[in-house]
Amino acid sequence: MEKAKKTEVVEDLNGLFAKAGSVVVAHYAGMTVAQMSDLRTRMNAAGASFRVSKNRLAVRALKGTAIEGIANLFKGPTGIAYSDDPVAASKVAVAYAKDNENS
Length: 103
Hints:
The chain is of the alpha+beta class. It has four helices and three strands; from the N terminus they run H-E-H-E-H-E-H. It is globular, with a radius of gyration of 14 Å.
């Protein structure tokens, strides 16, 4: 990834972290593409979003935000669920995890 693109991603994530009502860091190891698509669909239906980003860039983007303390969660395959609504992203993440416990 080019340096300019990395800078753009960090700035985008920083804005996302600064404005989001809630941010959920999810470890998605073992999920299939179909499961990931299902999770994204559920998030969108609830007014939330789910994206995957390089951990190193996400940690850089956390600097200077109120949630800087979650940087230690970005290890391994992680995704970021976020929403303006303080409970939407976490509600969908918990429901999805319950529905897919055996996956």
